[in-house]
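Pilot study result, target chain (170 residues):
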Amino acid sequence: MAIHDATPVESRMLSVLVENHAGVLSRVVGLFSARGFNIRSLAVGETEDPTASRITLVAEGDQKTIEQIKKQLNKLLDVIKVQDLSEEGFVDRELMLVKLRNTPQVKEALKSVMSQFRAQVADENHSLITLECTETRENAKKIFALLKGIGIVEIAQTGAVALSNKLPKN
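Predicted structure:
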């Protein structure tokens, strides 16, 4: 009996330029759910062209699954362009707002986090500190682990947004 290595699963950052009108996001997300694909992160916003929106998503799968996702996205009528940013290099950011108890111990622990990462106090009152972190997806995971050790009261995170770090091809 032959033993085969498992096909490696990887995360891929995809940028999907779409027509900016009602129902487009629903169709893109529906494509994923209908085929059993998971979206790990999702962010959507209007672009420099008000008729287009950019969907930035992180999908996981083996190479065959990722290729299938890209092919299926390209078949949707409202999709203008699909870029696999993981293939070409990109700049990404994710926003996190984190509530922590306002204690001297927490304030001391936050000094280290704020000096290592793009984090700052967004709001503070006698009982809570709200920290704002804008970091790469990888660093956001590290910050989350550090803050979890300090004692998160509540957290809200955006999906990652990303752009290629190369000039667009015409």
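One observation from the pilot: The chain has two domains: 10-88, 90-163. A full batch analysis is planned for the follow-on phase.
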